[in-house]
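Quick one: structure tokens for this chain, please?
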Amino acid sequence: AASKPEHRGHFTRFDRLTWRHQACEAPIGFGYSGNEMTTQELHLEDPYRAMVDGTEITIGGQTKGPLTGRRFVVKDLFDVAGIPTRAGSPDWNRQRPHPACHAAAVEILLDAGAKLIGKPITDEISLGILGENVFDGTPQNPACPGRVPGGSSAGSAAAVAGHYCDFALGSDTGGSVRVPASFCGIYGIRPTHGRVPVGGMLPQAPSSDTAGWFAREASMLGAVGSVLLEETIPDTLPQTLLIARDAFAFADESVQIALQPLIDRLGTLFRDVKEIDMALDGLVSCCLLYTSPSPR
């Protein structure tokens, strides 16, 4: 049987919780018999202040899997069984029960053998792009001290860049993985909408929400993608690089000039390089379509 939680200030310590594989449709509680889940205090150093100040988590994954031996953290928008999902706000979970099961993406990664070691900070309700949070604090940017880490998956990016873990789970609706990845100098990907299950993740805009991830190395990014996307990593690169001409036209001239050498280097890896327009009717008209008020 699981022990009762012992409260210590902002921390809650569970010596044994055994509910990792309980079906989400069936509410659970202490005493469920399954794989062991434990938490411990001060198990993770946090020099970049990336982690949520609260329950610290250690959940072991399967003993044999493609990600066995790898450690990860999950943005505080994803449910972890028995741990409050705060979404960067002290008020969000006060009237909500603790999750009864893990978010779908978290469960997939645990089943692949990865070890969950904590929840990092997000912008409040993930509504931000800089990574600033007046309640939890703003994570430091390991790649550029004194600069913001980018958001809203700020702590996830800082934890990876700061070598807390091998990879991290974040969410991306309007840039919340891509922006902090670029700010912190690591890899980050927003997958095609609907490719990674978002069950158990706090929704923002369901037609745009995605679960993405971060890694320091491209090989690690690919290994996590192989698990989450259920696809084998291809042995060869694509043969054609498509450059979105109309998207680059939105950038300031100084940005275009700064990016051009990188685009040229990237182009050497491909047989063909083509410029295309992503929006046949023009990006400006598409943006106006989504930003204009609806007629009454």
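The longest helix spans residues 253-267.
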